[in-house]
Amino acid sequence: MNAIEIRNLSKSFRGMYAVDHLNMTVPQGAIYGFIGENGSGKSTTEKLICGHLVPNGGEIKLFGRDYRDAGVRVRVGALIENAGCFPGSSVYQNLMMQCINLGIENVDEEIQRVLRIVRMEDNANLKFKSCSLGMKQRIGIAIALLGDPALLILDEPINGLDTDGMRIMREILVDITKNYGCTVVISSHLLGELEKIATHYGIIRQGKMIMEMSAEEMDSRVQMFVSLRTADMQRAWLLLKKKYNDVRTEDGYIRIYDVDDVEEVVSYLMENGHIVSEIKKNKIGLEEYYIELMSKQGGKR
Amino acid sequence: MTKEMKFESPSFAQRIKSMLGVDFYRLFHTPLFYIFLAIAAIIPVMVSGMTTMTDPNGQTIELYTNAWQIISAEDSLYVIRGIADYANMNMVFIFGGIMVSIFIGHDYKSGYVKQLFTTHAKKQDYMISKSLTCAFAMACMCIMYLLGGIAGGLFAGYDFSVNVGSLVIAILGKIIMSLGWASLFTFLNIIFRRYFGISVASSFFFGTGILIIGVAAIIESLNLPTYVLNLFLYGSSVNACLTSNVGTLIVCTLVSASWALIYNLVGTHILNKSDVY
Predict the structure, then answer these.
(1) Residue B71: inside a domain, yes or no?
(2) Is 50 exceeded by the pLDDT of residue A300?
(3) Which of residues 137-156 of A touch B (CB under 8 A)?
């Protein structure tokens, strides 16, 4: 069963489509990286799934049920734009309110459980307004995690976090999908971070889904390349261009695309009097893949 | 392997219970509620305190002849002729409107409303819960106003003789009217949810009952029956006075419940058709 199935979803604001006949499929148990430029319709789609916005048309199904079904919506957790907490109340009180809202019985235990997951068990009595941005994001996640959610919708949860905060967030997300069977939809501009955890991707542009794929499919689609440095980069580049189709210089390296035989490249250069000072085999990352896809689509980043 | 998911739809009672739980928790944990309770208690004390003051000629302001007039007028006075006709428990509905605007405004300002609407697919839950919670808060304000009125009456040395039955009906009537008023204010705050200032101003405007006072003046000048004004929240609130009878209480209950139902239905419809911001 798919956690989310969206067909022909549309939402317009003053006649302009923010989401334009969008189709989206998120398998159950996936960490779905939702990627797109600013204003591409990511947040609007997420708000539509959560029932914050009223669609102009289309269908949203969560775990095979209509998204307005009270039974399924009570199992959705969301962090969209902000944690939705009262600044003058403590972390504990904010969590308490959501526990009551969800009808959770063992409130103290549940609050301790989610605070442990987000590594904030010692901060329960802090006022929300005194928390740092990273802590607020984690509290937002903690609130979304209350009551055994089946689906988490997270809009830019890692933005503004420091390196350690990002690592903690990554670990939390992997943990909840593995141990709690939760499905996570996560949008972020930090594609490098997303790449480390996502099992599936959806790329949205101008309100339309232009590509959906699993991480395995993504791996098979991305180009392999060999990057190297020599003493005379200019001459080496001219030489390699004679033999290989796609040779570029990027970031001080020569990159030869669609080649994975390092030995062959080294031999060829040595035979022609070049000494290779550095060489490695690689594949383009999600970010580069995304940039290339966007440029093919005629977009700019 | 994916975990098998079970989804049980909560019953209407379960949904309302949880939403009410949140709203009451918030109400009791916000200083706003206690500030407005204090205001409700202080106002009648201040008004009756005014009546003990003397002007430069040594004249005392005579607003009331009886302590219970601080709570309610002697008769159903739809048209205001003096401050004493107005300065009674009906003022709670003005402060109550402002309190409801702030209470609901915080939901939107903090973004908490998004948490509520993510997990509560039925928007009627929000309308019903807010109306009931705010009605409770306004009922508490009525009680505080009553206590303040008694204190003010004692302070000013007023006569306390009264028809106890009518007094109880007047107080109960106003408390019952809190439900209709709270539903109106919740409805106004749903309409103007993006504009906090307008929410407060509209709640204040309707809370004063100025529209009904204006209509009452026209009706009176045309010698038409004024009892039709009892169909409105302000009219019924004024009708709960020190000469009330059981009929008044029935009218208050019907009017309050009917307007609460209307505002809840229309408010839910608006919420269903509009985006949450």
Answers:
(1) no
(2) no
(3) 143, 150, 153
CA B198, CA B204: separation in Å to the nearest integer?
10
Q: Residue B118: its chain A contacts at CB < 8 A?
A: 50-52, 73, 76-78, 153
Q: Does residue A129 belong to the interface with chain B, where contact is any CB pair within 8 Å? A: no
Q: Is residue A297 part of a domain?
A: no
Residues for chain B: how many in total? 277
pLDDT confidence tier of residue A299, bands split at 50, 70 and 90 = low
Which helix (H) or strand (E) segment holds residue B38: the answer is: helix B31-50
Structural domains counted in chain B: 1
Residue of A nearest to B270 (CA): A54
Q: Is the ipTM of this complex over 0.90?
A: no
Residue A141 lies inside a defined structural domain of this protein: yes
Nearest to A181 among B3, B17, B117 (CB): B3
The CA distance from B183 to B171, in Å, is: 19
Give the model confidence (pLDDT) of B136-150 as tens digits. 999 999 999 999 999
The residue among B60 and A205 whose pLDDT is bigger is A205
Q: How confident is the model at residue A169 (pLDDT cuts 50, 70, 90)?
A: confident
CA distance B183 to chain A (A): 21
Could you tell me the CATH number of the domain that includes residue A14?
Answer: 3.40.50.300
Nearest alpha carbon to residue A91 among A103, A102, A83: A83
Does B160 fall in a domain? yes
Position A6, amino acid: I
Q: What are the backbone dihedrals phi and psi of residue B242, each rounded to the nearest 5 degrees, phi first?
A: -75, 0
Contact criterion met (CB < 8 Å) for B119 and A181: no
Beta strands in B44-120 (DSSP E): none
pLDDT score of A301 more than 50 = no
From the list A51, A65, A85, which residue is nearest B118 (CB)? Answer: A51
Name the one residue in this structure whose structure tokens are 């009672």: B13
Q: Mean of the per-residue pLDDT values for chain A?
A: 89
The dihedral region occupied by A83, where left means phi > 0, alpha psi between -120 and 50, and beta the remainder, is alpha
The mean pLDDT value for A237-257 works out to: 89
| C-beta of residue B236 within 8 angstroms of C-beta of residue B213 | no
B254 has a chain A CB within 8 A of its CB? no
Mean pLDDT of A100-108: 92
Residue range of the domain that includes A124: 2-213
Percent of chain B at pLDDT above 90?
A: 64
In a domain, A299, yes or no: no
User: Is pLDDT above 60 for B212?
Assistant: yes
State the pLDDT at residue B217: 87
- Tell whether B13 lies on the interface with A, counting CB pairs under 8 A: no
Q: Which residues of A touch B275 (CB under 8 A)?
A: 47, 52-54
Asked which of A185, A213, A241 is the last residue of a domain, the reply is A213
- Of A60-64, A157-161, A256-260, B37-41, minimum mean pLDDT range: A157-161
Residue A185, in any domain of the structure:
yes
* Contact residues, chain B, for A51 at CB < 8 Å: 117-118, 121, 276
B9 → closest Cβ in A70, A81, A84: A70
- Tell whether A138 and A254 lie within a shared domain: no
Instruction: Give the structural domain span for B206.
Output: 13-50+81-273
Distances from the Cα of B134 to the Cαs of A90, B86, B115, B209, B249, in angstroms? 23, 23, 20, 18, 21
Between chains, do B111 and A72 touch, taking CB under 8 Å as contact? no
The pLDDT assigned to A17 comes to 95
Interface contact flag, B118 A75, Cβ < 8 Å: no
Instruction: Calculate how close chain B gets to A265, using CA atoms only, in Å.
Output: 43
